[in-house]
Amino acid sequence: MSKTDIRKLSKEEIIDQTSEYGFEKFRARQIHDWLWKKSAKTFEEMLNLSIKHRDILNTHFEINPVTIAESQRSVDGTFKYAFKLFDQKITEGVLIPTDTRNTACVSSQIGCSLACTFCATGKLKMLRNIDSAEIYDQVALIDAEAKTHYGKGLTNIVFMGMGEPLLNYKNLLRAIDKITSPEGLNMASKRITVSTAGIAKMIRKLGDDQVKFNLAVSLHAAMDSKRDKIMAINESNNLEVLMDSLKYFYEKTGNKITFEYILFKGFNDTKEDVRALANLCAQVPTKVNIIEYNAIDDAIFSKSSRQSTEEFQAFLKYKGVDSQVRKSRGDDIDAACGQLANKNGAVLKDDI
Ligand code: SF4
User: Fold this and answer.
1) How many domains does one find in the chain?
2) Within 6 Å (CB) of ligand 1, which residues are found?
């Protein structure tokens, strides 16, 4: 008899299904509490249930917790984790500590189908979506790690790890729902940022769903002729289509958008590029994160010089665009932006 993954059930479904085995409603609520608030990995941990109840649960249900298969610490204090999922697949997440924040960067897919040229994940085959409980577990595990190593839990969560979150929409929203719920990790939506390569249709859906979390767009070029070269998604979702969806998102949610912009020397860091970027920023309330490039294996780009970076930012300022330069973190352990690619031997290489 196959068992039901109990974390795929809503609270109401747990109440319904356990009532078939004689559980009272309050028992089902206790189970829900153990699963989400206390992140129980086994039914044995549910100590306020009788042994008989736990035996029944073990017979009919299963919990498929994510575990940390391997962790690496950068000289700058950043941690990278290889997470093992129930089917032995591996994904990655990062803990980025600063003086004021502990940020988790988590993954939404194993591999990615979008194949952006500058990204290590894009070189992996897309294996599967990560389900909502598995996304939740990454956050809960990194939260516990932050408490262990830095004495306080997570302050921020970014969906900028492996995969395109908006192509795993249902699981993403379900996970965020649990992460922000008082019955889960009770984190504030405003502390969560979902980063997309620019799936216009799904950005509109986020607007229709009136989400409260922040939206970031991996822009990296402000002209179609250049964006086409580095992000294949731009061919079906060009800048005009993307900007229309962002305006729609802003009208529906009132949330300012963040453009992520990695500076590639000589490719997207010229006067013409920054002028085009400022024009896009004038169309909808935005701010820009200018990101230092971290070269991956087979890199076709290199990092912009300090002077180009400063001039780029100065022009944005002159045009009244808010921006900040994001310093690279964890690049010695391949944990920096665009470097997550299961490189530490923990990956099932046959699958990739
Ligand atoms: S940048 Fe994001 S969308 Fe592009 S290949 Fe990498 S993980 Fe996928």
Assistant:
1) 2
2) 112, 114-116, 119, 121-122, 162-164, 197, 218
